[in-house]
## 1
Amino acid sequence: MIRSTDMGRTWGSPALLAEDAEKKLDFGEPCLLRTRNGRLIAMLRTEGYLYQSDSADDGRTWTPAVKTAMWGFPAHLLELKDGRILCTYGYRRPPYGLRACISADGGKSWNIQNEIILRDDGGTRDLGYPSSVQFPDGRVLTTYWFNQEKPGDPKSETRFIAGTFYRP
């Protein structure tokens, strides 16, 4: 991460967000959330499980990236009105779709046992990139890139933006 204190006219020294010392993982497409208490949570894409890194000093330093139990990518984070944190992500293995997981302890743990399946009718792994917002009545809308293509049938190839309303 690189910080600017003058609206982007100049940039400071970079802070390393995540690193795999064994050089087996490539981290990409980080999603950042600043919680109400000021902590930063980063959810990082790999080609499998999501990894999480946290910062308590505005991103100057980060905890080592830790593998979560959430399989999918890329992710989006949203702090809900009740303080829980919602993580949504594309599920790019059969059954293809979109999933969500909740943390009730500020991101220290994720309730994968009660993973929310938003969609499981995707045609291929070409889906995801969710973004979520919570409405005053508590409902959440997660929008995402989706397809219902039938593999091997070029006439069925369709890509579209979709959304799902739900109450986490």
## 2
Amino acid sequence: MVERYSRPEMAEKWTQHARYAAWLEVEKAAVKAWAKLGKIPQEDADKIVKNATFSVERIEEIEAVTKHDLIAFNTSVSESLGDESRWFHYGMTSSDAVDTGVALQMRDSLNIVIADVKMMMESIKVRAQEHKMTLMVGRSHGIHGEPITFGLTLAVWYDEMARHLLNLEQTMEVIAVGQISGAMGNFAHAPLELEEYAMEELGLKPEPCSNQVIHRDRYARLATALALLASSVEKFAVQVRHLQRTEVYEAEEFFAKGQKGSSAMPHKRNPILTENITGLARMIRAYAAPAMENVALWHERDISHSSTERFWLPDAFITMDFMLHRMNSVIANLTVFPENMMKNLNLTGGLVFSQRVLLELPLQGVSREDAYRIVQRNAMKVWEEIQAGRATTNEAGESLYLNHLLADEELRKSLSEEQIRECFNFDYYTKNVDNIFKRVFK
């Protein structure tokens, strides 16, 4: 993971020290459980819980010889203890400590991501309320459609993030699972009660039926949840990038005093933050593939999953945390240009009102086919005039499309001038915004 993308709170969850600290936490929970079951002396258990420690440097030194990280860890910890060290890692297999330790890391990291999502939702909500009635044009296929508000765009983002929040909370239930079931997961050397006591101590649920590892469909659920979240954040970023295009210029990332956009072109103000987010989303989605491929391990276990998880777990969490904070900053500080939004809304000479006219004609007894033909015929005239460079409004400020409709004799047989002009009222398109907001921001 590139260092510049690391936020300390999340990065610290995935250091080598944090990894071994999680293992030690699991081992101590097992010792406490053995003592509770009366299988080891309480005095020895207390000594282990109080005194057990490790050295990352010493573990690496031992591992260079043993070629086994968990054995090196156990040896390092045993060197900090006395005779009571015989109870350390008693009745356990490597994955009991490793996978349960990773569960602690995933749980704590996912809590940070969940907090990030809530933070971003709050920022979206504030900006949505601010721009609830800020008119802009809605686009499909990149082409102007009908009037909407920027607040509605942000409400869509909020609602999407709410779904991710629920998914992440449900994913937490899936991944916050540990095991102390011994080699092959048969509990031959450690009773189920030991696992139950230890997991209660750690704040995890026991894996109902493990083999020798925590099942990797749980990890895949996490990877796909993060990939989906990253994809939505990218969706928002792409929209900001489009809005910042010179030809559009309805919003832009905050441009700080002294900031520079190009080494060659001093005028440039580039959407670098959201472009960065787009790239990082591609990386997080890429991690979903190895996570899903790790589900199919040989028999009770192999270690083909281990090497990939040392990459994708810390990288996915650290990158996701960074992305969410970066996107939150973009949203909170986004510069919005309502005047340009209105300018673009009027860019097509009133064509955005075509459906309103279309829907009025059937109310007057006109067939939908005839109504569509009349409305489209006049719309195509406007397109031709726009292509020819003609102004989109007349001297009185009336749109080209309104002028053509008022001059259409066939249309005027069904709609009066007042009825046609009423079709060009923006209030028609914002009448339900408050009710939509009530749905979204419950």
## 3
Amino acid sequence: MIVTALNQALPNGRPTPLLQARDLTRVFRVGGLRSRKHLHAVDEANFVINPGEIVALVGESGSGKSTIARLLAQVYPPSSGEILFEGTPLSSLRSREDVLAYRAAVPMVFQDPFSSLNPAFTVAHGIMRGLKLHRHDIAPQDRPAEAERVLNAVGLSPASQVFGRYPYELSGGQRQRIGFAQALAYRPKVILADEPVSMLDISIRIGLLNVMTSLRDDQGVSLLYITHDIASARYVADRMMVMYAGRIVESGPVEDVLGSPLHPYTQLLVAAVPDPRAELAVTAEMAKGEPPKVIDPGPGCRFADRCPLAREVCRTTTPPLLELKPGIHTACHVAADDHGRGAESTGGAELGAKIARVAA
């Protein structure tokens, strides 16, 4: 059975993480049955999601963010490494009961709400079906009240106005809120939110982000928020992980990562955020080099071909993810050398000077 370990603690006194990835790797064979080529979608990812926090996973398209979500949701099995839920490896879940219990505890909200809503049935049908499947603690006569509760919790109040409607009768924002309501009905521990606001108008995105923070603050639910939008990640997240070409290259508290990024890729992501005061967008640095190689990649940093600070060691040795500042983990030879010398982020200053010259 799945072990509930929220009250257990690690030797350092911190609570056991809800979700933990250890050297999580997923490789896909490409090019046909006889092909020996492999796409490294996720390589040796290590991270935790703790109780009561929102963790943002950011990076450009194709970096492996959604693959991590699908690994955590057990859509894909890992090629290697392991996932632990409340200290229990998912590989130990054998019975159908345990698998259903895990999927209820770690549900997923998709980018396209139509992926999780059946257009042939009403809103009520989708939520009630989930309650019947996953919430055996609720008597059949009490399910409508629970469905109303979760709809109100995500801002669809009064619930009676949407209960009998079909998905096509609702706006995109309402459909996405229903996706969160369906997940909340399972009484989850962690919600995997894969680009949940990217298909919505900018004017209504803030409402969904506020729903996510209320789920954390009022319902005690943790979230993995997958996005390419740094601004929304900064608004909603407690911690951030930056992913590039299948590898996590930087992680830490969101304000520390974005306020003083150590990895050149994170610095370039921050520099690429539109600034109405800037005379010219910083595009030259981002366009430098070739797209990352994720099919049978060799050793070395996968950002090296695009990095303005790359050295020979960057092309021959894969940088480990090290804690270079308290709580900040970075996989970068340049940043590690700067930290070792005790310098005040020499690499960041050098890159800042390059960006300033481009924008001048």
## 4
Amino acid sequence: MNSKKFKAIVLRTGGTNCDLETKIALEELGVKTEIVHMNRIDDKNLLDYHLIVFPGGFSYGDYVRAGAVWGKRVLTRLGGKLEQFISEERLVLGICNGFQVLVEAGVLPGDGINETPSVALANNSSARYECRWIWLRVENNQTPFTLTMKKGDILNIPIGHAEGRFLADENTLERLKNNSQIVFRYVLPNGEDANGIYPYNPNGSTYDIAGICNEKGNVMGMMPHPERAFFGWQLPEWNRAPLEKGDGRKIFESIIKYLEEKMS
């Protein structure tokens, strides 16, 4: 992959703790990647980049609500710039806390910025922090984040969150289904629907939703951590049946495939 021409910016703030792993994953595939603190974002021109990543962590300690404070900062500091970035079909990825931020900023599930979130990522049904490997099924393989996959493919990727229960009212859920905005769902190891069964659905998410995109498909948020399933040595079976790479790598490879096709 000739990805050296692509540039990514990984944003961080107080409490972010997955920025370095995300940078390493992108740079492993040749993407020039910068980690930039929100306090320094005014020094950067977002349109110099092809990808913005909001990584995982516990921004501002999640003291108000997971992702809420950072989400409001995104609204006030990046609102118009981020809307332009998205309208030009550049990519935005929110992972775990980053997904929460995109929801709180109203970036997902719509195509613009909205001060009033239309979905929520609430406390896990177990009322505790869940850290485990789960199985995902690809529901939409036509997004820039799933181009290297087939619909129905099963991915094994870890989660680590206390507030990942995706909630939406019936009308919003139907709209997500009809617009093919549901990208990943939690499933059983054999790929069958989890139907809310714990721990296969680790947080009680409505319709087993683990990741969604906007209507255009160029903004995606997901609770599982693909950067933690990138290298073979990160996988649970690394010392028994070592693999060359993990399933999370496919998401990053899909990003590069999209950029190569878009810029060709």
